């Protein structure tokens, strides 16, 4: 075995094996970076050789381990809860949401069903009796929905959200009121008598027709029932709520309707009402005082005259409120209707979902297709169904994507020469990547990382595209082993040459996605962690299991088996070189196969003028019988690829080229060497490339200014669906959001009343807050509470002045006067609870509009118990709830104090059941009990004080929120108001969907810039550590930063908004971009010669695997284009496709140019002397097969002796054809001797590699 030359005289083409290089480098001959890389490559070499020796065992154990991890998919959980997916982890919103749920639980929730009516002809007015009649038709159809489940029939009246039913001592009256109590429905039809048709309750009294809201006059009914029951308390409640005649006192849309009540204002005139006038200012439910629906909740596209009178509208909206599953379960728990079905909360949820789906279906089908109006229906279940559909795995697309990748891998690796073909390797590689993806996801499931829509819709294809890249890289490197590599070291040599690149790209991917996990959105954090873990599993599969596949394929070729169909022998494995008979002259070889054994002495010389490596090969040849070893040529031939020798002419001598057909020898390496690199690396081409990429960067910087923040729900729902039509109409016409200003515990409410009023005023003054009608007071519990106190104070003052109430008696006073009497004498002292001297010395509300602190919590108990409708309208949601104290001016025993579990609720509803009397929020309703008069005792009992409040809220409506900037402005204003209140000692925070889902945009761009900057620094450190060259790492990071900026700018031109999802892709683009840059950079770093030559060699080595990797990524992403969700197409397919194309351009065009200009010096420099003497071997005899050997050699040449075996037989067509004898790329000289040509066989030396 030839002794290696001294390190100081390394020829350009010499690459010592890692096991030989290490001791030489330790001697200090080479730089430390090369030593470290050689050490790392030595480890990879040992790993590859070990895998090759035990390839069967490694493959079995690897598949077993990955298969076991893939079984973890059985415990995967798909998360579809919006709050769990989008609320920032650990943020103040998350903490506030936790506080709300801790105090209120889930009982405050409810479900909404909405109908939006719009004209088919855009801009048409809907404020007409005809349009409202169509709206009534759709709403009535939807309200009559019934579903049968668990052997029961469920209609709206059973499951709708009601105010709660007061307990009446008369059982018959109680049951009648329970059946009649109206559902909460916000509809423009409530301005008319026809709104009563949506209420499905009915009751029966002897001697009367069925009582329904269409014929119910509460005032008349109470008059008729007066002689039979004591209903004074109930009458007072209705009077305070201003129920009046309810619906029968409202105009009829069609006065000629036979059922239009005589009490309707237009019953006798038979004139159709003026719809715009009736709807101006909104409508009312059955209570005029507490159930006011503002026109912004009912009408969209409103136009008014200068005086503020309503003229026209383009949309109508009705909202049906249902109980939550927990409330429905509690309502029917223990009821005779459900005692036999094992009633549970899950069953209640199933009932609600079934009813909602049927509601949406029938509402959308209510109007005929030729109608002038169209109905859009939506429910909370519809949104859940969309999220579930969004999160489902499309088996067809997954299978199609992987089959497409299998076909691509197989086709690109198939060769006509069976010994070179790697189709089976490609198939096995793609299947291995699929298993690695499954195992990575299974590991995520075992670690408790929940899946979401991004996991199921995007990750399988993204991971496939990224994972197959390394498969192509190893497969390309395996077929290009250096000359003379022993068969048993082929896998080790492959890992030694490519392991560094694979490790660098995989680590960069993992670091990028782990950095993307810094985005505090749970859905995207889970997605980023899952991608990082899947990339790690793929890295393990590529580095450990795939080399075993390559080793088995090498065994297949050694046994001369066909590719893919490995059970059949290969007919073409022995053919190496075909030479025409005429080129042999008089030594024509008979038809058949013979072998030419040539002893080749290669003399290598480096020219100073061009820095080209010149190799002169003058072999002596003779014919020998074919050897018995079919792979002997594999083991002993140089086996260099066409890119290993750069042809160069020597002087003016003429040469005859031994050429092959273009279709037989063309590949991407050939294209890079002879076409792409020479064109790209010319001076004017470099200037053009720099100018074009500079222009692209400048244009992208402008595009970055066009990027807007936001992610609307309409972007997620598939376009063209009914759900998308509803959401578009809602966003356009009813962009209203209910929010609440929550006050926490930790401060004294009684002494902070002024600060609470100031907070409410400050919040009300925000631009986005919808102001209440001018004729109505603000709807907050503190205002309602104060107004109630002022009302009973006025009643007391009247009773005191008239003598009906005295110092020691309230027997003859009014109900409100008696309440004030009991409150005024309270001291709050347990030892002396009553002080009658306070009757005339104090007021329930002072002149500043504040409640005396000592009466605050006692009065709160009385208000909560005595004014349930006012409490419900205030939407206070107190916690802890004040005790339920029932007022009876004749009671002095204290029995009017009841616990929350007292039996004052009818219909099985639990105490403190919530009621929604407003558009969205639930309101706690307390029981009402009336009792017959009892003898009065002069000493009333003490009223228990409520506990200090820890939770209360003020409701608000936000309007005009169309763009993300509008949301951000409203959120910032709300936060500023809370911060100002905090300085006054009031702890408060805003609550509602805008704060849950839009507050992330306050710091999204800052988080994005921080994550990208940190990732670029990490990428620089990783590249500098593995490449051991900060210069090269800096150029890579520069290109990656340009890619990120350009991708961001292109998003602006494409109209893609910035949200947490594009942020994850932008952050991950840094890691994905490493795939396109590090191979070229590493190829440049480990070659010798001028910068241009090294850039050309790097392109020749990496163009094929980088291009294959890009194409495989695009094929993986291609299946995303078939998604039903436009969101997936725009935010994943388009963005990732642009990223892949940018990476391809920057990695194969811009980076080589930058390296050719600013690249670092080579790691190994040639140290031997240059000789001007170039010897030309003498010409062979005409028609001969041997070349003469120069008797003398200049001292500057290194001599290498080897053997080459070729087979000769005449081809069917004229010309020369080259067929590799092994899996090595064929060594093809640029010039061969001819009868009339020069005898020189000269070539440029290989692009030398040092690592």
Automatic annotation (TrEMBL):
Give the molecular function GO annotations: hedgehog family protein binding; hedgehog receptor activity; smoothened binding
Q: Does the keyword Transcription apply?
A: no
Name the keywords, alphabetized: Glycoprotein, Membrane, Receptor, Transmembrane, Transmembrane helix
Residues spanning the signal sequence = none
InterPro entries from the xrefs?
Answer: HMGCR/SNAP/NPC1-like_SSD, SSD, TM_rcpt_patched
Q: Which Gene3D superfamilies match?
A: Multidrug efflux transporter AcrB transmembrane domain
Q: Name one GO biological process term.
A: negative regulation of smoothened signaling pathway
Question: Domain named SSD: which ranges?
Answer: 394-552
Keyword Membrane listed? The answer is yes
Which Pfam family name is an example for this entry? Answer: Sterol-sensing
Query: Transmembrane stretches, by residue range?
Result: 395-414, 426-451, 457-478, 499-521, 527-552, 1008-1028, 1034-1056, 1063-1082, 1132-1158
Q: State the family named in the UniProt similarity comment for this chain.
A: Belongs to the patched family.
Q: What is the name attached to this protein's record?
A: Protein patched homolog 2 isoform X1
This chain's source organism reads Mustela putorius furo (European domestic ferret)
């Amino acid at each position: 075995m030839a002794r290696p030359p001294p390190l100081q005289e390394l020829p350009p083409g010499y690459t010592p094996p890692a096991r030989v290089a290490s001791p030489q480098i330790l001697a200090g001959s080479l730089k430390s970076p090369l030593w470290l890389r050689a050490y790392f490559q030595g480890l990879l070499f040992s790993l590859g050789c070990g895998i090759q020796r035990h390839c069967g065992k490694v493959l079995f154990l690897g598949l077993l381990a990955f298969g076991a991890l893939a079984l973890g998919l059985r415990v995967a959980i798909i998360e579809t809860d919006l709050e769990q997916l989008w609320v920032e982890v650990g943020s103040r919103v998350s903490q506030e949401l936790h506080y709300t749920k801790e105090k209120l639980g889930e009982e405050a929730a409810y479900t909404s069903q909405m109908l939006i009516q719009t004209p088919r002809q855009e801009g048409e007015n809907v404020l007409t009796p005809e349009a409202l009649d169509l709206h009534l038709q759709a709403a009535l159809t939807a309200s009559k929905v019934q579903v049968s489940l668990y052997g029961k029939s469920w209609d709206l009246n059973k499951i709708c959200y009601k105010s709660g039913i007061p307990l009446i001592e008369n059982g018959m009256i109680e049951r009648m009121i329970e059946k009649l109590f109206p559902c909460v429905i916000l509809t423009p039809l409530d301005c008319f008598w026809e709104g009563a048709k949506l209420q499905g309750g009915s009751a029966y009294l002897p001697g009367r027709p069925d009582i329904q809201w269409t014929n119910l006059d509460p005032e008349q009914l109470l008059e008729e029932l007066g002689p039979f029951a004591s209903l004074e308390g109930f009458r007072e409640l209705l009077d305070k709520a201003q129920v009046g005649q309810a619906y029968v006192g409202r105009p009829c849309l069609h006065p000629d309707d036979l059922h239009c009540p005589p009490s309707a204002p237009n019953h006798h005139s038979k004139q159709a009402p003026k719809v715009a006038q009736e709807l101006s200012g909104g409508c009312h439910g059955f209570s005029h005082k507490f159930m006011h629906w503002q026109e912004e909740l009912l009408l969209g596209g409103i136009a008014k005259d200068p005086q503020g009178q309503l003229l026209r509208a383009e949309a109508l909206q009705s909202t049906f409120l249902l109980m939550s599953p927990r409330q429905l379960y509690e309502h029917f728990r223990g009821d005779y209707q459900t005692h036999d079905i094992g009633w549970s909360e899950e069953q209640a949820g199933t009932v609600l979902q079934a009813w909602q789906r049927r509601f949406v279906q029938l509402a959308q089908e209510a109007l005929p297709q030729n109608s002038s109006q169209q109905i859009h229906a939506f429910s909370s279940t519809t949104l859940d169904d969309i999220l579930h559909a969004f999160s489902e795995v499309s088996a067809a697309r997954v299978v199609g994507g992987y089959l497409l990748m299998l076909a691509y891998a197989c086709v690109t690796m198939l060769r006509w020469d069976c010994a070179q073909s790697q189709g089976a390797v490609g198939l096995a590689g793609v299947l291995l990547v699929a298993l690695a993806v499954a195992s990575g996801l299974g590991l995520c499931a075992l670690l408790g990382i929940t899946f979401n829509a991004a996991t199921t819709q995007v990750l399988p294809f993204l991971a496939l595209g990224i994972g197959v890249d390394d498969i192509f890289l190893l497969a390309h490197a395996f077929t290009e082993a250096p000359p003379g590599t022993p068969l048993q070291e082929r896998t080790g040599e492959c890992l030694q040459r490519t392991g560094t690149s694979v490790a660098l790209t995989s680590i960069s991917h993992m670091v990028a996605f782990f950095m993307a996990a810094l985005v505090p959105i749970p859905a995207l954090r889970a997605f980023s962690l899952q991608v990082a873990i899947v990339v790690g599993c793929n890295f393990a599969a590529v580095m450990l299991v795939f080399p075993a596949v390559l080793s088995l394929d090498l065994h297949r070729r050694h046994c001369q088996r066909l590719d893919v169909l490995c059970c059949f022998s290969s007919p073409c494995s022995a053919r190496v070189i075909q030479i025409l008979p005429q080129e042999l002259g008089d030594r024509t070889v008979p038809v058949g196969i013979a072998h030419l054994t040539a002893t080749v002495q290669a003399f290598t010389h480096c020219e100073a003028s061009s820095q080209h490596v010149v190799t002169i090969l003058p072999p002596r040849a003779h014919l020998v019988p074919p050897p018995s070893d079919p792979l002997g040529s594999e083991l002993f031939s140089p086996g260099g690829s066409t890119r290993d020798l750069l042809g160069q002419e020597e002087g003016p001598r003429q040469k005859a080229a031994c050429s092959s057909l273009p279709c037989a020898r063309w590949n991407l390496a050939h294209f890079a060497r002879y076409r792409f690199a020479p064109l790209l690396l010319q001076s004017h081409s470099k200037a053009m490339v720099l100018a074009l990429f500079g222009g692209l960067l400048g244009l992208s910087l402008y595009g970055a200014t066009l990027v807007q923040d936001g992610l609307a729900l309409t972007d997620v729902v598939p376009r063209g669906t009914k759900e998308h039509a509803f959401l578009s109409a809602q966003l356009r016409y009813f962009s209203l959001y209910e929010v609440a200003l929550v006050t926490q515990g930790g401060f004294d409410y009684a002494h902070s009343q002024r600060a609470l009023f100031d907070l409410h005023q400050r919040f009300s003054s925000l631009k986005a807050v919808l102001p209440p009608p001018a004729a109505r007071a603000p709807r907050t519990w503190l205002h309602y509470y104060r107004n109630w106190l002022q009302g009973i104070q006025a009643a007391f003052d009247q009773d005191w002045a008239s003598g009906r109430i005295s110092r020691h008696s309230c027997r003859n006073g009014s109900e409100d006067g008696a309440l004030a009497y009991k409150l005024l004498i309270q001291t709050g002292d347990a030892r002396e609870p009553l002080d009658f001297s306070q009757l005339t010395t104090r007021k329930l509300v002072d002149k500043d509009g504040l409640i005396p602190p000592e009466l605050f919590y006692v009065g709160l108990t009385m208000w909560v118990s005595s004014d349930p409708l006012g409490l419900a309208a205030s939407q206070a949601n107190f916690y802890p709830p004040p005790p339920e104290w029932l007022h009876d001016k004749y009671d002095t025993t204290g029995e009017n104090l009841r616990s929350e579990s007292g039996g004052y609720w009818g219909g099985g509803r639990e105490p403190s059941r919530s009621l929604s009397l407003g558009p969205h929020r639930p309101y706690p309703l307390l029981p009402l009990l009336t009792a017959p008069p009892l003898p009065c005792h002069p000493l009333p009992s003490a009223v228990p004080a409520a506990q200090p409040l820890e939770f209360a809220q003020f409701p608000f409506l936000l309007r005009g929120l169309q763009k993300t900037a509008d949301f951000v402005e409203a959120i910032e204003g709300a936060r500023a108001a809370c911060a100002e209140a905090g300085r006054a000692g009031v702890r408060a925070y805003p609550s509602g969907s805008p704060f849950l889902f839009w507050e992330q945009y306050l710091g999204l761009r800052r988080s994005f810039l921080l994550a990208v900057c940190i990732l670029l620094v990490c990428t620089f450190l990783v590249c500098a550590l593995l490449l051991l060259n900060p210069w090269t790492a800096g150029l890579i990071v520069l290109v990656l930063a340009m890619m990120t900026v350009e991708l961001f700018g292109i998003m602006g031109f494409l109209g893609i908004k910035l949200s947490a999802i594009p942020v994850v892709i932008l952050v991950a683009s840094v890691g994905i971009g490493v795939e396109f840059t590090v191979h070229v950079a590493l190829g440049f770093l480990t070659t010798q010669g001028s910068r241009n030559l090294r850039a050309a060699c790097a392109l020749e080595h990496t163009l094929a695997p980088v291009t294959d990797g890009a194409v495989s990524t695009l094929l993986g992403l291609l299946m995303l284009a078939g998604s039903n969700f436009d969101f997936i197409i725009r935010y994943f397919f388009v963005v990732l496709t642009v990223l892949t194309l940018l990476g391809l351009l920057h990695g194969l065009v811009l980076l080589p140019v930058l390296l050719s200009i600013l690249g670092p010096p080579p790691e190994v420099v040639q140290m031997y002397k240059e000789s001007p003497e170039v010897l030309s071997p003498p010409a062979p005899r005409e028609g001969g097969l041997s070349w003469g050997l120069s008797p003398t050699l200049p001292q500057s040449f290194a001599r290498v002796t080897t053997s080459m075996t070729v087979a000769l037989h005449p081809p069917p067509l004229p010309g020369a054809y080259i067929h590799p004898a092994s899996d090595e790329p064929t060594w093809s000289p640029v010039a061969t001797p001819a009868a009339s040509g020069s005898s020189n066989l000269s070539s440029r030396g290989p692009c030398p590699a040092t690592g």
